[in-house]
Amino acid sequence: MNHDDQDETSKSQRKRDVQELKRLGVELLDFSDDALRQLLLPEVLLDALRTAKRIHSNGARKRQMQYIGKLMQDIDATPVRQAIEDRNRQHATHTREFHLLETLREQLITEGDSVLPAALAQFPHADRQHLRKLVRQARKEQETRQPPRASRLLFRYLRELQEEPDHF
User: Are residues 49 and 100 in the same domain?
Assistant: First the structure.
């Protein structure tokens, strides 16, 4: 790096860039080994990430993250950023769908048959009888203050319906 390049970016900006690379490295720790391999990262960086996952001492982990940040300076971080964004977006979508199913389950239990047409419209391949049976059982459990076994079964059934390939 010659002197002209150093003048273009301030020392503070370079520090921010390194901090951002360390932050990306921390987020990579949540990735599985297979997902990390798919990013085609250099082997030395993969080894450093695997080592960091095993370290529990705060000081040692901090040093390891410094090292990972240094290694990440030598790669193009764009695919890493993209993979992290995709993963976060997928997680947000999954969470949103989970909450929608929870809401539908609660509506089915509290409002009963009046919500059933909306649920069947959302999941046209649902077994109407089975769905009504689960709703009745869940409502009865709630009224008698029993453990929510049927409520969980209802949620699981809704999730299965949602995951069917022909669900739109």
Answer: no
Indicate the range of 5-14, 60-69, 70-79, 91-100 predicted with least confidence: 5-14
Count: domains in the chain: 2
- What domain range includes position 32? 3-75
Which residues are within 8 A (CB) of 120 and not within 5 positions of it... i.e. 6 or more apart? Answer: 126, 128, 131
Residue that the structure tokens 């520090």 belong to: 15
Q: List the alpha helices (DSSP H) in the chain.
A: 3-8, 11-28, 33-38, 43-54, 58-72, 78-111, 116-122, 128-143, 149-163
pLDDT in tens, 8-46: 778 898 888 888 888 888 899 989 888 888 888 899 999
Threshold 0.90, pTM exceeds: no
State whether 63 and 103 are in the same domain: no
Q: Which of 152, 157, 110 is nearest to 131 (CA)?
A: 157
